[in-house]
Amino acid sequence: MMKLTTDVAVVGGGPSGLTAAAGLAAAGLRVLVLDREREAGGIPRHSDHTGYGLRDLRTVMTGPAYARLLANRAVEAGARVRTSAMVTGWAGEHALDVTTPEGRLRVDARAVVLATGARERPRTARMVPGDRPPGVLTTGQLQNVVHLHHGRVGTRAVIVGAELVSWSAVLTLREAGCRTVLMTSEHARAESYGAFSVPGRAVLRVPVATSTRVVRIDGRDAVESVEIEDLRTGERRTVPCDTVVFTGDWVPDHELARAAGLSMDPGSRSPVVDNTLATSRPGVFAVGNLVHPVDTADVAALDGRHVVRHVLAYLSGTPGTTGPGTTDSGTTGSGTTGSGGGGAAIPLRAEAPFTWVSPGLVRPGAGAPPRHRILLWSAEHRPIARVVVTQDGREIARRTLPWPVSPGRVFRVPSSLLSGADPRGGPITISLG
Amino acid sequence: MNSGVSRSGPLPEGAIDVAVVGGGVVGAAVARELAGRESGGRALSVALVEARADVGDGTSKANTAILHTGFDATPGTLESRLVRRGYELLGEYAGRAGIPVERTGAVLVAWTGEELAALPGLADKAVKNGYRECEVVGADEVYRMVPALGPGALGGLTVPGESIICPWTTTLAFATEALARGARVLLNTRVESVQRGGGEEGDEETVLLTSRGPLRARWVVNAAGLGSDAVDGLFGHERFTVTPRRGELLVFDKMARPLANRIVLPVPSSRGKGVLISPTIYGNVMLGPTAEDLRDRTDTSTSEEGFAFLVDKGLALMPALLKEEVTASYAGLRAATEHGDYQVHLDAAQRYLVLGGIRSTGLTSSMALAEHAAGLLAEAGLVTSVRDDLSEPPRMPNIGEAFPRPYMCGDLIAKDPAYGTVVCFCERVTAGEIRDALASPLPPADIDGLRRRTRAMMGRCQGFFCGAEIAERLARVEES
Question: What ipTM describes this predicted complex?
Fold first, then answer.
């Protein structure tokens, strides 16, 4: 086994990992990015539409162009980017086992940044019964087939989900000559509220069945139809189609995080991080859609930018920002986090309809979270977002935000709403009034 | 592809010695056994005749994948005897052929007073079946063995010999060795009718009229699984009826594996049949099966009712398991009959043998059934002896988790970088393994066949990352 040492190992070469690598290398550290794909860049590589780079680069470009640019920037900054390099497990607190075509590697790092991203739940994880023919995909597989491999799909598709990514699937299908005959959403209204669904419906002429779930797929050798149920009436009907795309319903690629025994958030299934993006193991950080499945690529990239100074601080042992091991208040069961010379971290919780909040810990004195935003995920739609923040039974903030709460997309709350929290107090709760 | 394998084109013109109908685990074992025998100084010519495009693509691919000790069989039955013998034979063969086996052991868990009271009887029954290792244990010991069990377990019965095995590699190993011994594997060959009376007097032949044309054989072994009663009917018999019994199974993410390090079996009781929780050889955890009699012998769809039943059972048995993601669900059809035992009948006049009604224990008993079949054929006049020119069995690629897989092997990667190129990330399948499977003596016909040979795409992402790449690799081979 070949041995490599580096200051920072970044696992995953998508927008967040590459941006972190570029920043850390520019600060003079030896940085090694390990990406299992043949090319770095992550999901944007096969998202062949524009809209990438808005928040991080202040411009827009296509996904593949964005992926190339971020990879080039990391390399130009001095990071080493290894592709076809699959991290298969841990060999120590900050050591990784890696399989590459050149052999097995043992990477010994002083700090590790996990940037492994997220994937869509496939049909199996959603437990949709019926026959199991080919032609049932996720958006990720669809875009891989169409954009990277120039393969073929069918002619009539049903799309499960009506998130932003679902409309991206519609565009990809259209490019491949496949018409979307129906989109279904279990919510009372399409998730991708406003941004896409109104013009989407008008321009792409896709019917959206809301409050609807797919209950069965039929077709032995090829998809012939899906059976859908109206959740309001219980009525069922059959929709003929030859392709089914399961979209959204994200789950983080958290296996490496779990293998390390990091504290995990039961809602997002992500490793719990604090405002410095430190996990419960000192010197192991987590960024991007691994910790908030999922936000847009530019937001993930800005996590990568955010983590740079905290990794630097950890490596230099600077107190006050980050440094090994203090315990949180112990009331959440989320264990310890490896940063925060500033004091014990306060658990951050979210009440229904929210299913998770990121970061899950707030470390007083460690600065704001990325982009000064707390990220939440909602199971339900709320046209008016009256956000209430409480701690120890005391209301510390209340504000109506000018954007709605919508399922299928991240709901962002300014972190300034937490500024009234008692640094020695108990857990902070975010809810809707 | 071995020249003995064909998926299309003409069938052999001359008469063969034995046609084995049905390329499941039993048929493949029989073909392997008979291809390793000679009669009158001449190796038997054998053809494995399979209606589908691949071996092991029916009942044999979707079962609970347990290598049974036979502790709970009905004493005195043929099934009891053959499972016991097959356990030894297959366990030994697996070691030589590289079929993944893990000796996990099992525990039957009693949740009611009735079930608890049944345990000593089950231990006695195990002894009657020739298995003496069972032990009744208290609830503390049950929870020590499987800490993730839900509350309420009252006691248990240990079965240390129960093991898990790869059903896909087993069938492939038998078929691959049959090929190496000179047998033919005729795929996409559905037997549609049967004509008797060809050949010379004293050396009569049967003509199997198949979807690929006629095939002449001196002897016919029916191992057609769900179709075994239909084929039996073609020979004029009405001895049993196969009622496909659907068993639905849920497979949980590898993250769940630490929850179940041994097989957790239900105790048969008046509450009806329970479900089992089992680790899989691929590092997952399986929950199931349901048991539902169907009419349609091809309906391997899963159902809402099946899922709901399994979720309900799973929540009580092991609540933590249901918090993990489901990475696969499937349904298998067991070839159940109205009889309580295997349906093995010899028709010496027609030179015909049926191995029917082989239920889920057939994976374990397969090699014993093959041995038994050779003995019965000898009674009817096909006296054979084992060839003395046989080589060691083929070494099958390891797709189990208990042994090193190529991605972990530095020396292998140093010799061939393709074994260091991980293509399917979730299951850690390398380009080298996919290439090998596509170039193997018995290559896959489609993605499912590739999955059974390599595990590619059977993981948690179900192709989100690698599906397109793997389809392209398969298509490239099909074109060339």
Answer: 0.93
